[in-house]
Specification:
alpha/beta, Rossmann fold, 60s Ribosomal Protein L30, Chain: A, six-stranded parallel sheet, five-stranded antiparallel sheet, globular, FtsZ/CetZ
């Protein structure tokens, strides 16, 4: 399957860089050079080795809210994105206390990221023109969903791609670990709910499940990127090597697109077993050249071994922990020497997946690799709905937002009380109590900000120009006629009103109803 790879933000750029490197290492040419990286900071660009310089697109460099990167500054290792850890001298526990607003780029703010992307859409479109859409079967956007650039710019880029591309657009989104800040958790929760409806499918990668116990997350980024590259190539690049012998069950790009066609969240499992290379090994090939090799008619791996391999992939560490029985559709890919993969083993693996996932929509195909000394099983679980990690991020993000709102309100009240006390001290008498109305931000203002609703949805931005009309107990209307009314209602249903109408005629009346 041919893919164009678009990295967004620090994490996305680094992962795409590793994917292109793995493409060269394995010989699976699945991008054909259709690679781009977008970022609001040059931090990741300075460390990429495989993405050509003309394919690195810096946006927002003239935007007033974008922070410049200073190579010798404290923010050097603190770039925007989920794969940017704390400074090198920080303790493990400090990774959760990194101040996102000090990060180069958009400071971890997805709203600023989205605004920057919309302002620089012409630049983004010019970069997308470098991608030969006719040569690819799909596009994969790679981003750290906890970062302001990954989540903010990524969502705008996704909208642009869906409006102009005919082929599917998938997203690989990195979720922050528990040791990362609450702000990142909220950004990731918002990002998931924004991106999932826009993308044809989303493959989350959970940093927490790959963190390896108490290890610092920034110490694990390189290893996590290696695991991501292994699984993405095993899935999307399967079949990109020309086989020595054709296979009736060879994986096809339509198998992948059909599996992901159900949308939603997807997870990838992966497992490998070493096999006796036999005639496929170096000595075996030399004997064959000399005509001294005796062919063994029974060289296939037995069905029980294939079944164990598929079960290992099923129970392996998935890209995102989930209940696989909530999958809508499943794809199995077996990669290895065709002589070692029996049809019976293939069918046994499919039946196992049907039993474990509860779905009959299990597709399967193989990737013939004649010179391989192992067999690999890659399993794609599409549209999984039972994903505790995403639900946890939602809860953590909402709790963080509510705490921030409460703190802001308390601070605003304290400021108001202090100001009132100052006025009392200066005048000698208490001021009139005119009240204090809190705005959307808890500080008396109504600055526009898109936040997640309490039920997990996205709230509409509230701006200064969208202020609700004031309501009071008295209404006045002036034109040719002026009417003034006062209405009082008590528990005894007594209504007293006084109406005065002024125009060409004046009428005064009093009504009392009991």
């Amino acid at each position: 399957m041919k893919l164009s790879l678009l990295g967004v933000g620090n994490a996305g750029t680094r992962i795409v860089d590793r994917l292109v490197e793995a493409e060269a290492e394995t010989g699976r040419e699945f991008t054909e050079g259709n690679v781009l990286a977008f970022d609001t900071s040059t931090v990741a660009f300075e460390e990429t080795t495989t993405i050509p310089e003309d394919r690195r697109v810096l946006i927002g460099d003239t935007h007033p809210e974008v922070t410049e990167h200073h190579p010798n500054g404290d923010a050097d290792s603190d770039a925007d994105g989920d794969h940017a850890g704390p400074p090198a001298d920080a303790d493990a526990d400090d990774s959760a206390s990194v101040v996102d607003s000090e990060r180069p780029g958009v400071g971890g703010d997805p709203d600023v990221g989205a605004a920057v992307a919309r302002d620089d859409l012409p630049e983004i479109r010019r970069a997308l023109d470098m991608v030969d859409e006719t040569e690819v079967d799909a596009t994969l956007v790679v981003a750290g969903l906890g970062g302001g650039t990954g989540s903010g710019v990524g969502s705008v880029l996704l909208e642009e791609l869906q409006s102009s591309y005919e082929e599917p657009v998938y997203v690989l989104g990195v979720l922050p670990a528990e040791t990362e800040s609450d702000e990142r958790a909220l950004t990731a929760a918002r990002g998931v709910r924004t991106i999932v409806p826009l993308a044809d499918a989303v493959i989350p990668v959970d940093n927490e499940s790959w963190r390896a116990g108490e290890a610092r997350i920034d110490d694990r980024y390189a290893a996590i990127n290696d695991e991501i590259a292994t699984r993405i190539l095993a899935l999307f690049a399967a079949g990109e090597l020309e086989p020595d012998n054709p296979s009736e069950m060879r994986i096809d790009p339509t198998d992948v697109s059909r599996t992901l066609g159900v949308g939603g969240l997807a997870a990838i499992g992966h497992a490998t077993i070493e096999i006796d290379s036999g005639p496929n090994g170096l000595i075996g090939r030399l004997l064959a050249l000399l005509g001294l090799r005796e062919d063994d008619p029974d060289t296939t791996t037995d069905a029980a071994t294939i079944k164990r391999l598929v079960r290992r992939a099923l129970e392996s560490k998935l890209t995102m922990p989930c209940d696989v029985s909530s999958s809508d559709r499943v794809l199995l890919i077996l990669s290895g020497p065709p002589a070692k993969i029996s049809r019976k083993g293939f069918e046994t693996g499919r039946y196992l997946l049907e039993d474990e996932t509860g779905t009959v929509e299990v597709l399967a195909g193989d990737e013939p690799l004649s010179r391989a000394d192992s067999i690999t099983a890659t399993v794609l679980f599409a549209n999984v709905t039972d994903v505790p990690r995403v639900e946890e991020l939602q809860r953590r993000g909402l709790a963080s937002r509510e705490e921030a709102t409460t703190s802001a309100s308390a601070a605003a009240k304290e400021v108001a009380a202090s100001a009132a006390a100052d006025r009392t001290d200066s005048s000698g008498s208490p001021p009139d109590d005119r009240g204090f109305e809190f705005g959307e931000n808890g500080d008396g203002s109504d600055r526009g900000v898109a936040i997640e609703d309490a039920d997990g949805g996205m709230a509409t931005s509230v701006s200064d120009s969208e202020t609700a009309p004031a309501e009071t107990g008295d209404e006045a209307e002036t034109g040719d006629e002026t009417e003034t009314g006062t209405e009082t209602e008590t528990g005894d249903e007594t209504e007293t009103g006084t109406e005065t109408e002024t125009g060409d005629e004046t009428e005064t009346g009093t009504e009392t109803e009991t």
